[in-house]
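We treat protein structure as text, and this decision shapes the records that our systems exchange. Because each token names a local backbone shape, the row as a whole describes the fold. For reference, a complete record is included directly beneath this paragraph.
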Amino acid sequence: MTTMTDTSNAARFREFKMPDVGEGLTEAEILKWYVQPGDTVTDGQVVCEVETAKAAVELPIPFDGVVHELRFPEGTTVDVGQVIIAVDVAPGSGDAAPAAVPAPAAEPAAEPEPEAPKGRQPVLVGYGVAETSTKRRARKGTGAAVPAAAAAIQGELNGHGSVTVQESRPLAKPPVRKLAKDLGIDLATVVPTGEGGIITRADVHAAATPVPAQAEARVEVEATVSSAPETAAPVVAGVRETRVPVKGVRKAIAQAMVDSAFTAPHVTEFVTVDVTRTMKLVAELKEDKDMAGVRVNPLLIIAKALLVAIRRNPDVNSAWDEANQEIVRKHYVNLGIAAATPRGLIVPNIKDAHDKTLPELAAALGELVSTAREGRTSPAAMAGGTVTITNVGVFGVDTGTPILNPGESAILAVGAIKLQPWVHKGKVKPRQVTTLALSFDHRLVDGELGSKVLADVAAILEQPKRLITWA
């Protein structure tokens, strides 16, 4: 009879594991839950948003039912393969607890679950996780809290082999963690007053209150020694430093820039150009009925100019294959556009930009920018770029020396367009002027080729009719 009950419960409750939402990524941070225990969910419904090293992604659940349990609160980084939500797929058939979620034992340490078989884990998107076993984190019991270090020592004394010591996390319920996150409070700096060392809402509100002057020295020390907070440390009066964990998109950007800067020999060339005629063309296109419904700006003409320059100098659109010691010529252009987002700089690209008409290119640019600003850019949208444009002019900057996006051959920086005195037809006149900077991989692109590409872009922006005569 007991066996039949266990089998029934196992069939009733289903668990949804963190999938590999990128290309072989190993972890993701839960940014937001869209459901709570007791909510009804349907197959394909988005239940949470997670952030990987590449982008923010919404996760749909692959079955129907009623949410039984959320395993991790918002702000938690979860390994691929760990269960994040349990769903009752047969609600109303009984009140028994699911077999996969055993009731906590009286002892603090939870009973370990059987290790998953080695090999490829099932995923929803991407190429899958590494071929290794995945364990679920031990769940806390209902007894007295035991520090992580003490639990590790106890495990070693019991002679059960190696013990993985996990960093202790402050004890708090999900709503309290959410409150701390909204207020910018690091739970590691909050003094708990709840039973069993649990942080309460009152504790979080107390931590948000400005600290008296006599306590400033103590707070500075605590902020310095607190270990790896999950969120940025709160800015408190008297604290002169704030430490922010490097993770997600920011961590990926940092590593990619280091790899690019110290792998590809960068060369940067500059040119200052009169873009008055280009600005007039932009104004005319805004009134053109064929461009209705799309955004027209100088970046559109610059992007088209770069595509024409690549067509005239196709060798610039290449990649360096270090493993095979080959130069790979690309016969397509996936045009990357650097976009600043709240989660950091990302570079989605327009696939096959070389085949697009001006209205199609304008529509693709508009969609790319709006998606990036909303934080909805997918990992696939950032893969496979060949050449990139970064528009630093929107910040009022004249130009810069951009670092190549890894795997690409060139990147064009566009400076601010300003009214400046310029010699035009033998006279000094006020003209719209900007400075362009082209960085390229000197293994692939020599000075002559790089100079030709930059000169062609400048010539088109000075005389936009070349978009027709050179096409």
Observations:
- Residues 249 and 341 are 10 Å apart (CA to CA).
